Structures are given as structure tokens and as C-alpha cells.
Amino acid sequence: MTAVRNWFRLTVGGLPRAFWHLWVVTLINRLGSFVLIYLTIYLSVVRDLEPGTIGLLLSAQGAGAIAGTQFAGVLTDRWSRRKTLMLSNFAASVVLLALAFAEQVWAMGVMLVLLGAALNMARPAFSAMITDIIRPADRVRAFTLNYWAINLGFAGAALLAGLVAGLDFHLIFFVNAAALAATGLLVLLKVPETRPVVVAADPAAAPVRVGRVLVRDRVFLSFIGLTFLPAFLMISLETLLPLQVTGSGLTEQQYSYIIATNGVIIVAGQLFIPRLVEGRRRSRVLALSCLFWAAGVGFVGVADTVAVFMLTVLIWTIGEMLQTPANSATIADLAPPTMRGRYQAAYSLAFQVSGLVAPVLGGLGMQYLGRWWWAVAAGVGVVAAIGNLVAEPARERRLAAVYAAEARAAKETQAAQDDSATAPEPVAPADRRRDDTGELAAVR
């Protein structure tokens, strides 16, 4: 029992209250995310759309996601983290209600563009807020806990959405909209603004161009490129694994059991990851995660039973569990404090672009290469692992410099607080009154 208490304390202890408010925001948001789970089925069953039309509508949502993320990156840095997060949730809530009543394809397309933009506006703001309030040593742990909340919420949403959709498909929109409004209200009431106070720049100094800073940041750009490769594998699995499973003679219901393995493993095991990787270089953790991705994806090509497919899911899920918190913490550390929103937005592009590229290349690969496509995909994971090891020296030097600078800033802040606490109280001037002659005299 003592060991369990110690593990629990080391896993969740020592994090600020603001983080737990954000954690609850994540959990409620994901518990109510019914529409994303059932959107394809809704468009097919309720709206009776063809697969090609559905694909175009989902691509429209992806285009909106790219635009919304980049716009939110600017808002997060220049306006407010907190207000951007509230705007995202409240706007998405309204758009979902409008989407529920959209009947024409063009109207659904417009609503899905707006929905993709509104939902993804939260990403840069949310990640920047966690980075602002969590010290570097605890960031992997914090992002792990947040990722666990995401998967716990999605697991609950999958169960609840099925029950709600069985009553009336339109209810999934109403419940999802209510959850988004509730999270926006929770941010309004409980989450403080975390955006760093920017010291006024010297008017004579040249303005800082964030785009130029990003383009010249080679360590950051290499990290984004290496993030794109496992993201490509992730999207390939999301879009093509159902085809591989059904093409092997298995049913859609058996596929649901197979893919459910992913959520079960993450919910059961994600909280153990921080202790396993504590003190290890993140570049090596990321390289190891890419090898798990490669192995899991590669074995998909030879799987033909439910048990073997579940084994492949187990393997690549371990890669996912290692990668996600390490990635989030690394990008948080690489981003300058005043540019965290835009760095997070640029980081999100790795996943959003892979969402556009992977289905096309993967579909063509499966069409012309068959099962051998998965061997090619495994090679992508191996390349990503090697790339992380090659990038390790420059990345670790950059991170070491960031940690040293943050430690110096913390010491200077503490020293200033100590000086103000020990400074002698100023001597108040003697009280004075006028004497009978009208002259000022000290009151003794």
C-alpha cells in the first residue's frame, strides 16, 4: 500500500491547481466529443452521402483545422491564452448546433470548415498554458497526465455516444455542444491567464519577426520533420487499418475489438510512462518510440487474425505512449516563452499535413503494393528513429541551454523576492502640527 501511495504521489503530486483545472477541462471536453466519433457514420447513414462526398467533407474539416491552428497561434501569443481557449470552445459549440441542422452538402462543408477551425484553435493555447505553469522537470509528467485524460475521455465518449446515437443521432450534436460550452465556462471561472508579461521593446530596436525566427530555428525544424514521420504512420493506421482488417476476412465488429485495444492499453499504462523515462534523454525515448511504431506497423502486413492484429496494436501503442508526452514536452521547451503559441501551431502542422498526405499515399501504396506497403511504412519508422539519434546532440545542447536560462531566471526571481522581504521598512517622517505661533513643530 505504501508503494502505491508513493507511486501515486510521484505521478500526480506537486502540480499546480491551474493544471488540474486544465486537466478537468480536457476530460469533460473529450467525454463529450461524440460528433468526431460518429461523424462519418452520421454523414453516411443520416445524410445518405456517397463515400467520395464524405471524403471531401472530412478534407474540408482538415483544411479548417490547419487554418484555425495557425490563427490561434498568433492569438495565443499576442492576445490571450485563456481567451483563445474560451473562444475555441464557445465557437465550436455554436457551429456544432448549426451543423446538426445543415442539410445541403455545401452548408455541411462550410460548417465543417468552421468546426475544424474552432476545435483546433484550442491546441496552441492549451499547450502554451501547460508550458507556462509547469516547470521543465515536470512537463513530461504533466503532458502524460493530460494525454491520459484525453484517452480516458475518448473511451467514455465512445460508450456514451453509442447509447445517445441509438436514441436520436441529433442528440450527439446537442450533448457535444453542451460539453464544449461547459468547458468554456470552466475556463472562464477557474483558469487564470498564463501569458507571460512582455517587456516593452526598445523603439529603436528592429521588430522580431516570428516567421523568420521559426525558419532559422534548425533544431525546431528538424524536430517538426521527424515528428511528421511517425504522425504519417499514425494517420495511415487510422485510415487504412480498417481496410487491412476487413481485407483479411474479418468483420467490422472484430475491427472494433482490435482498435479498442489501443484505448485500453493507454488508459491502463500511460501513467507508468513518466517513471520509466525519467532521467533519460528525450531524443532516445523518441527514437525508441519510432522503432515501436515501425515494428507495429510492419507486423500489420502479416497479420490475419484478431489476436495478431491486437498484438500489432499493442506494439505501436507503446510507441504512441512513449512519443506523445516526450514530443509535447520537447516542443514546449524549444519554444521561446513569447512565441509558444506560434511554435505549438507550427508543431501541429506535422500532424495536420500528415492527415492530408497519409491517406492518399497509403491508399495508393495498398492498391499497388498490397501487404508490402506496410513494410515500406515500417521503413519510415526506422528512418525517424535514426533521425532522432542524429539530431540528438544539437537538440540536447539547445535544451540544456534552455534549462540553464530558466534556472537562472528562477534564481533571480527568488533573489528579488528575498531582497524585498528583508529590506528595512522606510522610516516614516515625524508627525508634525502647527504650534500656537503658526510654525510647524514635530510632535514628540
From TrEMBL:
Q: Where in the cell is it found?
A: Cell membrane
Q: Which UniProt keywords apply?
A: Cell membrane, Membrane, Transmembrane, Transmembrane helix, Transport
Highest taxon of source? Bacteria
Task: Give the membrane topology.
Answer: Multi-pass membrane protein
Region of interest: Disordered: 412-444
- GO MF annotations, alphabetized: transmembrane transporter activity
Membrane-spanning segments: 20-41, 53-72, 84-102, 108-126, 147-165, 171-189, 219-243, 255-273, 285-318, 372-391
> Which InterPro entries does the UniProt entry name for this protein?
MFS (IPR011701), MFS_dom (IPR020846), MFS_trans_sf (IPR036259), MFS_Transporters (IPR050171)
How far does the signal peptide extend, from start to end residue? none
Q: Where is the Major facilitator superfamily (MFS) profile domain?
A: 18-396
Q: Which Pfam families match?
A: MFS_1 (PF07690)
CC annotations in GO? plasma membrane
Designated name of the protein? Putative MFS family arabinose efflux permease
